[in-house]
Amino acid sequence: MQTLKSLFLRHIGQTSPEPMMLEVQRAEGCWLYGPAGERWLDLISGVSVSNAGHSNPHIVDAVRKQASDYMHLMVYGELIQGPQVEYAALLTSLLPDPLKVVYFVNSGSEAVEGAIKLARRYTGRSGIISFRNGYHGSTMGALSIQGSEVYKSAFRPLMPDVMLLDFNSTDQLSLITELTAAVVIEPVQGEGGVRLPSEGYLEKLRERCNKTGALLVFDEIQTGFGRIGSLFATTKYGVVPDIILLAKALGGGMPLGAFISSGAVMSTLTNNPALGHITTFGGHPVSCAAGMASLNYLLDKNLAESATARGERIKASLDHPMIREIRGEGLFFAVELTDSSLVPRFIRKSPGNGILVDYFLFCDSAFRIAPPLIITDKEIDYACESIHKTLDSL
Ligand SMILES: Cc1ncc(COP(=O)(O)O)c(C=O)c1O
């Protein structure tokens, strides 16, 4: 008999030899439900997407309403579409000057591509600087600035003129020069295993970019929308980039990305040549309606601010001899185990104890905790008990 599992393996392009392969029938709040009555507490949020929870009724209503008004009408940028315009106005009201013009795209990777093109176009320079263990996506430009050789070497030649620096190394900031178009950084590195910026580092980076005329690009695709205990890292750390990149939770569970800059920088994509970046589905009206409903929900419920207290409860409750360190802030943690070989065993066994946790791309000694920001104290206690139980069973 053909099961969904056998069809999945035959017809869905596989990203790895060992997919999780849990069949999900529905999801609600912080929980995913399987066909045989199983349920798993989601400690991943679809990789920092479902910050307002799964099937949030406010988001579902917004999607229904927009889908019945209209879906795709025309390529991005030609028609005045309410959901795009209203969402851009709300987003920019929450961001500091000069981040006031939004270019909507489909994904995080496309936002990165857009930012690279925009920085090259605005500065007339070609050099891009990024950071070891930084992740910016999987398309060719985003891959080219990725901070690990593991996923890059099989696809060379990649985009030229890319240099990697060590995250938090102030000594290396002198490598940013008048040839640098952009410095692309995750203010808090996600896939590197939740690495926080050292005191004053982002300020020094800002100063060096000011001095050389390089554009500073914050990739807040994973840190945005409350994940680290404030709406954005730029507001948390008080350092304003020239371009901010958003995706993941930006769409409230629908596909959406954006690069946001000043009017002066953004306008360089408009002329010579016109249509400097084109996207058919960028800023899809249903995605924008969903994203706006999600952001309004986060704001109404103060979920960015309350993420810190919820995160503290997780940190305080996790205490096990196999845990070496819990690193992170808000509701974004890397839990370092005493031995890297424990991590895959732990992750594979976790669903059996009713929780979903995940790897990091560039940190094999830790597992990820990044639940929806609506997680309750009771759910946190359940999660911590399950983590302890799973560790005990290794
Ligand atoms: C920091 C960061 N930038 C960019 C991306 C790429 O986003 P997408 O998978 O939507 O292309 C990711 C995805 O994990 C990310 O974490």
What would you note in describing this structure?
The chain is α/β, with parallel strands linked by helices. The chain folds into two domains: about 5-55 and about 305-390, Aspartate Aminotransferase, domain 1; about 55-300, Aspartate Aminotransferase, domain 2. Helices cover about 35% and strands about 15% of the residues. The chain has helices at about 5-10, 45-50, 55-70, 80-95, 110-125, 140-145, 200-210, 235, 265, 285-300, 305-315, 340-350, 375-390; strands at about 25-30, 30-35, 40, 100-105, 125-130, 160-165, 180-185, 215-220, 245, 255-260, 325-330, 330-335, 355, 365-370. The strands form three sheets. A seven-stranded mixed beta sheet has the order 4-10-9-8-7-5-6, sandwiched between helices. A four-stranded mixed beta sheet has the order 1-2-3-13. Strands 11-12-14 form a three-stranded antiparallel beta sheet. A hairpin with a 2-residue loop joins strand 1 (about 25-30) and strand 2 (about 30-35). Helix 3 runs antiparallel to helix 10, helix 4 (about 80-95) packs parallel to helix 10 (about 285-300) and helix 11 runs parallel beside helix 13. The longest helix has 16 residues, at about 110-125. The model has no long low-confidence stretch (mean pLDDT about 95). Pyridoxal-5'-phosphate binds near residues 107, 136, 137, 186 and 247. Pyridoxal-5'-phosphate (PLP) binds near residues 107, 136, 191 and 247.
